[in-house]
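Standup notes, structure subgroup. Blocker cleared on the zinc ion input:
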Amino acid sequence: MDCLFCQIARKEVPAEIIHEDEFCVAFNDINPAAPVHFLVIPKKHIVSVADITAEDEAVLGHMLKTIAILANDKGLNERGYRVVSNIGEDGQQTIPHLHFHVIGGRSMTWPPG
Ligand code: AMP
Ligand code: ZN
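Run returned:
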């Protein structure tokens, strides 16, 4: 698949990978919005949350559990953090491969822009 995040998952494009397993890869965002900002993607090419099918449910649950473990490893549990997935044009999604942003290490504002 000619997709940047598929290429990162296949190690064809370099990234600061912080976790990899059978189902997902996590790597630091190239343009961090906070002291901690990493992305968690499925190895399977899924465009966005809107494209998740029943057969993806186990992978999605695994990704959320992985997010919790990695965030804890980064020391984010005490003060909290944010998990975001942008979808489509209004959601300002720029890479059409499902990803969860995990952002922390500073106090967030709400609502987002
Ligand atoms: P979104 O706008 O929600 O689709 O998020 C895409 C994210 O991918 C942005 O935060 C970008 O900074 C990040 N990004 C784009 N290219 C790379 C890359 N090569 N390595 C790591 N992060 C990237
Ligand atoms: Zn992809």
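Discussed briefly. The chain is about 20% helix and 20% strand.
Next: hand off to the docking folks.
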